[in-house]
Amino acid sequence: QGYFTYDPGFVSTASCTSKITFIDGKNGVLLYRGYPIDQLATKCDYLQVCYLLFKGELPTKEQYQEFVHRVKHHTLVHTQMESLFQAFRRDSHPMAVLCGVAGALSAFYHDKLDIYDPEHRELTAVRLIAKMPTLAAMSYKYSIGHPFVYPRNELSYTANFLHMMFSTPCEEYKVNPIVEKALDRIFTLHADHEQNASTSSVRLAGSSGANPYACIAAGVASLWGPAHGGANEACLRMLEEIGSVDRIPEYIARAKDKNDPFRLFGFGHRVYKTFDPRAIVMRDTCHEVLDALHIDNNPLLKIATELEKIALNDEYFISRHLYPNVDFYSGIILNAIGIPTSMFTVIFALARTIGWITHWNEMHTNEDFRIGRPRQVYTGKEKRDVKPFRSRN
Ligand code: CMC
């Protein structure tokens, strides 16, 4: 005892050094490899951002074409994966399914994988970027009892995901460019966020030398909780439950009541003590999408806008620096473009996979890399002797 500091929730402990993502929570700054998130979200597509995160620099035109070509040629999953899906209950939550099937990739890519070879690590990243949309869409198709739809490589990354989600053998889904752009932006906004719970889970699992696909399953599991990635689904369900602007004060009062476990989903952040910069881009995108799709008077947006206004003027939220986070507006956009609520966190997982695998890759290249092994402060019984079974009553 006494050789280490006690830091519940790792509020002030850095677990590694990293060159990937910078956050200044006081001033609401988020940079991927030095580039501000709002610029990346508006000037680059998601695959450029994936390239940037993994390789460290934005791609040239030639590098981009080569990368896109590579990703597109890994979009199929082994046909035996289809049988794996059939083993799940139809009403399983798609995150439960994704957790299982992402981990199952390790069974297909293990024996010939050398995690100490940079080329193998890069191939793992490419495979994951390519296959996660396929698995995500399959988890949705399975949940609604529709046949799986195979990827189409002539489509963009995001259009292909929409195609696999919404095309049927009877009808090809026509991808709306506004929807495609908005979803692509959502992917970028979720791509990385330094040492959050799921990324730390992936790093910790990977620190033992475990199979990277199994580590990604650890990330999916960690992301699912409503305090983390599950907040986007929880936030939309909360807005639906509030139902009308006049019921907002009731929910604000519940969020402030220490005897009520209810929290305002989409509000507050461990690191940001001001507006989450991702939320600002998300709010603008939300307005753009609803305008472009001619969705006037969206009741959820009305409730969200009013809720934000009331909370930002309330002493409880002001004194605790609780501001809207990335998940406050993402659900409204996803809902407006036809994504079912149970798929929201799956979309977060799909987008965050590049962050997870980039951190896993960086960890294996860092000179100070060691197996992760946190200590504890023991608060249990002192040493005592075992009584023979016959004399215990
Ligand atoms: N509603 C009501 N009160 C809140 C909320 C909220 N959403 N968030 C924090 N608080 C209060 C909390 O009760 C505490 O009050 P007090 O000091 O009186 O005990 C104070 O604010 C500090 O909260 P904390 O729980 O110590 O903060 P944390 O850093 O441990 O938790 C959080 C951060 C994100 C888990 C939390 O703010 C939360 O549960 N928010 C709602 C869920 C959510 O939207 N999560 C998505 C995060 S962004 C996406 C991602 O990166 O995963």
UniProtKB/TrEMBL annotation:
One of its GO terms (cellular component) is cytoplasm. One of its GO terms (molecular function) is citrate synthase activity. Pathway: Carbohydrate metabolism; tricarboxylic acid cycle; isocitrate from oxaloacetate: step 1/2. InterPro entries: Citrate_synth-like_lrg_a-sub, Citrate_synth-like_sm_a-sub, Citrate_synthase, Citrate_synthase_AS, Citrate_synthase_bac-typ, Citrate_synthase_sf, Citrate_synthase_typ-I. The chain crosses the membrane at residues 328-351. CDD domains: EcCS_like. SUPFAM superfamilies: Citrate synthase. The keyword Transmembrane helix applies. It catalyses: oxaloacetate + acetyl-CoA + H2O = citrate + CoA + H(+). The active site is at H269, D327. GO terms for biological process: tricarboxylic acid cycle. Keywords: Membrane, Transferase, Transmembrane, Transmembrane helix, Tricarboxylic acid cycle. Pfam families: Citrate_synt. Belongs to the citrate synthase family. PANTHER family: CITRATE SYNTHASE. This is Citrate synthase. It comes from Succinivibrio dextrinosolvens.
